[in-house]
Amino acid sequence: MVDYVGSRFEQILFASWQHFSLVVQCLVIATVLAIVVAALVYRSPALTTVANSVSAIGLTIPSFALIGLLIAPFGFGVAPAVIVVVFFAVLPILRNAVVGLTSVDRAIVESARGVGLSRFQTFRRIELPMAWPVILAGVRVSAQMVMGIAAITAYVLGPGLGGFIFTGLARLGGANALESVATGIIAVVILAMVLDLLLVGLGRLTIPRGIRV
Amino acid sequence: MSESMSVTPASAGATSLNPTAEITGASILLDKVSKRYPGQAGAAVDGLTMEIPAGKIVMLVGPSGCGKTTTLKMINRLIEPTEGRIVLDGDDVTGIDGDALRRRIGYVIQAGGLFPHMTVATNIAIVPKMLGWSKERVAARVDELLELVSLDPEQYRDRFPRELSGGQQQRVGVARALAADPPVLLMDEPFGAVDPITRVRLQDELISIQKELQKTIVCVTHDFDEAVKLGDWIAIFTEGAQLVQYDTPARILAEPANEFVENFIGAGAGLKQLTLTRVNEVALQPAVTASPGDLTSDVLSRLDQEGHDHAVVIDGRNRPLQWLSRRQLARLERIGDDRDPRLPLIGERATLNDALDIMLVSSVGAALVTGGRDSFRGVIDVETVMEAMSQAHARARTSHAEGRPVGINTGALTALPAPDDAPDDDRPLHAAGRGTAGE
Prior knowledge:
The complex is a heterodimer of chains A (213) and B (439).
Chain A: H1 2-7, H2 9-41, H3 45-58, H4 63-74, H5 78-102, H6 106-114, H7 119-152, H8 162-170, H9 177-206
Helix pairs in contact in A: 2-5, 2-7, 2-9, 3-5, 4-5, 5-7, 6-7, 7-9, 8-9
Chain B: H1 2-16, E1 28-35, E2 45-52, E3 57-61, H2 68-75, E4 83-88, E5 91-92, H3 98-103, E6 105-109, H4 120-130, H5 135-148, H6 153-156, H7 166-177, E7 184-188, H8 196-213, E8 216-221, H9 224-230, E9 233-238, E10 242-247, H10 249-254, H11 259-265, H12 269-274, E11 288-290, H13 296-306, E12 310-314, E13 320-325, H14 326-331, E14 345-347, H15 352-361, E15 366-370, E16 376-381, H16 382-398, E17 407-409, H17 426-438
Parallel strand pairs in B: 3-8, 3-9, 6-7, 7-8, 11-12, 14-15
Antiparallel strand pairs in B: 1-2, 1-4, 2-17, 4-5, 9-10, 12-13, 15-16
């Protein structure tokens, strides 16, 4: 195992970096998308219910199946990988964003409107910052989840650590096959922990002191 | 036409009759304002015409669900009226941008409605910043306002709302509402969420702030006693924002318009009237005074001359020390200089209600009134209070409602003839509004 890692260290590092980069970029896109969708639906109880159902049902779709289906329209490579990772990343964030935005005290929103903040200013300066801790919790859940999903994108030749797992599994029993799979899994777990720590740090930096728990 | 005639003098009075005190408030006119919600049979507010004079505190009171809060929120158009016009300081603001309008009107809700993720300073600065004030001007204004609401800027500027008590949050809420120096302040049950002691203190502070600033304040409350204490005018509403009575506290207490108002005032209208008069507004009884070291025989003979039963012992700075009866004097040779801690003292700024309270527990049935630096002013007794009350009562009954602001519902059968959708009714009101703006 040590030999295996030692001989391919640069390759592993590069794949890890690609994996990490894929997840982080997809998370950024997913967070923006989730907030935009949440902003559009949170004031209507009917749309809120729809959004919650979509995020619940969406999570039941097997990621492997979805990525297979995307080969036909998008081919192989980065595009289907990004689409799948973003799709799954959006769901927990969307759910938390809707919950966070709807649970902002209406009296505070009313007093913001009352002192003359416009609808948009109220959202950006009052509701979003107050919902941010809940949204960020969703981002953390999402980050853990899509770390694993990103590995599956190797099936469509997407970037990242999935390659180690897939090639290892394909020649299971052969030389270094187990080492290859183990390397992929362990690296994914380590990356997930690193990203979670970074997100905790992001929370420290971005959650206002007045509403920090 | 009677409507237009009473609008004009009140609007004029608000701007020109009081040139010495600087009124920074603006008059408000609700002109046949209605609010109907889809799917509801009755209107939440039905054809309400109400004038709110500049620089006064107008209290909107009534049972829950009577439409008083809806009425308040239509002034800054947080709730858009279905019909009617809102005229602020002579300008029709029904059609202008609602956000711009609200930046010109302070707004305070129960518990302050502070933004929990912003510091006290940021909360207060939010409107001035939107209006594009410079950083220095905003910072100076924040400190000035914190001092106005009795919070030390050094200590509280950088705190978050959750680090403040309920009363302090409410104070910051008032400071935030006043930040951009708006002519009008709207308050929605502002003191509903604080304990009774803090509430009294906040009410007193609001009164003193208002004395200084002379804003136009419209305040919703369900507490009639609060309305009596704070209001220059009280508007009593019943369901559908039907205005039952719109008058001064004294006149509402002395002459409730109907049974509904009587019930709403509740028991003890007479006692509530006591809170409207202050000790220094009534004629105090003189007293025989003595100083420590005086011979009691001299004091007793002076009591005989004046026909009094008690003598007040005062010190060199005119502060009352003891209050001695004939019997107590007879036991002494010379008057001592010790201070009686149980002396029934009342400040001259206190209300008759407080004075009566002191009197009832004092053994004499009267109280000593003190003024500045605790100096002795005179004696107040139950008869004085009774007389003041009957005078105030008579005054309230006979006084004509001069300068009384207009308040009617178009649908209501009030003493005032309701204008039956006469189209020419719009013109005088509009003219009155323009007149105010032109002055």
